[in-house]
Every structure is written in C-alpha cells, then in structure tokens.
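anyone seen this seq b4? input:
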Amino acid sequence: MRKKVCLALLLAAVMLLSGCSMIVKDEAVDAATEILKVNDTVYTKGEVKQMVDNQLSYMYSLYYQYGLSFDPTDKTNITDAQDVVIESLKQEAVKKQHLAAEGLDVLTEEDEASLDEEAAENHEYYKELIKAYYFADSELPAEELEAEVEKMTGEYGYDLETMRLEAKEALLEERLNAFVTKDVVATDEEIAAEFEKQLADAQTTYGEDASAFANAMNDGDQPFFAPEGVRLVKQILIKFTDEDDAAITAAQDAVTDAQLALNEEGADQAACEEKLAQAEADLQAAYQTAFANIDAAADEVIAQLAEGADWDELMAEKTQDPGMQSGKTAETGYAVCKDMSGFDTAFTDAAMALENVGDVTGKIASELYGYYIIRYVGDVTPGAVEMTDDISAEIKTTLEDTAKSELYSNTIEAWVSEARITDNRGALND
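predicted toks r here
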C-alpha cells in the first residue's frame, strides 16, 4: 500500500533536496550513466537518483512526524537511501523479468478498465485530501480551484498517471505471488499439529488465568483452552451527557489540584483542607447531577425489559457502548470473570453477581460512564475446544498464508542471487 506521509513535509523535503544536486558538464550524458544492470534490465543515474531523492523525502517526513530529526543531506543517510533503492530495484527487475517470461504481464481490456477505474478513484481521493488540507477556505472560482488542486496533486506524485502505474504494479505483484505460491497447500497433518500446538500454548497461558483469557476473548481472539469461571454478558450503557462528563472531569481536576496544594511545603493546612473538602463536595454534586440527568433514560430501559422487550433489539436501540453496537462482542457478549482486570470494577462485580443465565441487573451506577444494565447470556465452557470445520479452515488459511509469504520472499531472493548484476552505485556520488 502506498505510504501516506504529511504532504507539507514531503514537499519541504523535496525542495531541500533540490538544492543539493551536483552540477555536471553534460546533464543528459550524466543522467544516462548506467548505475545498475540486472540481466538485461538497465537503470540509469537519472532514474536511480530520483528514487533516492524520493526515499530521502519520505524519511525526512516520517521522522518529522514523530518529532525526530533527519538530515537528507547527510552522507550516511544518502548512502542508506541509495542502498535501499538499489536493492529494491534488483527485486523489481527480476519480478518484471519473470512476469514477462510467464506471460503474466499481459493485461486484458477488462484489466485495463479496472485499472483506469481504480486509478481515477485514488486520484480523486488525493485531490479531495489536498483540497481539504490546503483550500478549505479558498474563494477561488470553481474552475480555478479545480486547476490549482489538480496541479498540487501532481506535484505530490498523486497524478492520474502515477496512480494508474501503482495500481498496475499492485496487480502484477499479486499475479506473480499467486503464480509462485500456487502449489502451497497445508496438509491435514500440518493443520492437526498446529491445532495441538495452539491448544498446548493456550492451556499454558490461560489454564489458571481467567482474566487473561477473558481479555483475549474480548480482543477478538478465540483461545483453544478456557479456564473455569468465565461468563458472557451484554450491557445497555446509558452514558453521562457530554456536558455532565465535562463537568465531572473539571471537578476531578479541581480535587487533584487541591490535593497537590495541600501537600506543598509551607502550605496553609487549614485553608487547603477546606479547599479540598469543597472540591470533593463539588465532585459529588457533579456526579449527582450527572446521574439525575440520565435516570429517566435508564428507568425507561428497565421498564421496557420488565414489559417483555427483546433484549438484543432494545440493546441495539439504546446502548451507548460501541462494543455492544457491532462486532463479535455485540453478538456474543463480553467475557468476564471474578476480579477481572481491564474492566470497570462496578461492571464486573455486578455481572458476576447475577445468579442465572438470563438474569438482568437493575441500573448499576458507574462513576466512569453512567449506568450499566447487564444481562447474563451464558458461560464459556471450560477446557479444550474441539476441532471444528471453522477452526480447521482458519488454521489452514493461516498456515498457507505464512508459507506463501516465506516462499515468495525466498523465491525473489533466489532470483536476485541468480541474476547477472552489474552494480555501479558509486557513480551516484560523482
């Protein structure tokens, strides 16, 4: 995938680099100097230098985004960039040569049309990004604005031609990968062995750690061994209003400030204690107001459940918890256990206090969010899971993806190793 870097920083780096070009007697001749030859594919000085400058620009921008310094004029950085580019060109050359040898680089009319469409979509995406970034307050007439955006899009390398070239390269890379790895198949024996390995690992990791298991499950994993004491619950969360949440945060900050003032050397203890007591009272008042403002909404949910409302339908309508609105946790519920880390204690205590599957709490007050209304939906069966078709298919996919990745990488390295290569990168600095 194309790396997206800060546009302004990228342009700044390009401008900086442009001032470092060496003056030569005949620029055309110098640019045509052969730097790298891989079998019959030749890369010239002009081509390689442009790619090196692009690499340095990218590194400059990347470092800057993380608050780090990167000098694109430093000799060591330039040499590193040259090495990266040369090695990538070696791989690019052998890939193209094998694509051609196998006839995989031939595109149909349908392929061409698909590439045109993808390029147009990507080009338009970057145009909109640039328009929003640089021209949000522009008063230019529509035609002039469009022209300026189009111009800048090209300056950053997101022009339609470049977008199409990238789309084509991605398609050909996918074809070559598929060709090289077409015979990779995970056997039943390999799948069974991987299942046993993951089962043993899960038993070691989670056998006596219900909290770790529950957290892993909530993160989307499905460990192959479950400990005792894990149940599944769903919740309808009625959150504090944004205004009340902000008021609580401000009151908490005031309490913290008062505590710090009380601990300062030479502080007036009586005055500071009085100020702290007032801040704590204000915080409790903020909580009382916040809960009062959502009492009616929580009571309505309780009443609808008492009248026989379908839990999942009501949850979909009322909950303000993103984890209960979509995804696996919304479907199965949260995994929880006694003394679990990672969740609000008020939530886990209430969830574990429910006695029977199907039981529902009243409104559980949480100073973190608002009111929880929790339903006990089931238990996680302890012990080892059984091998199912779904598990087998998942393991098969994982094994094959890993094997394909390794085979493809090793094959490219072998092609480079077997190629006739002339490397004249030293001439880049002449």
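The beta strands are 34-38, 41-44, 225-226, 231-239, 334-336, 364-366, 370-379, 383-384, 421-423. Confidence is low (pLDDT under 50) at residues 1-5, 19-24. kinda curious what u guys think
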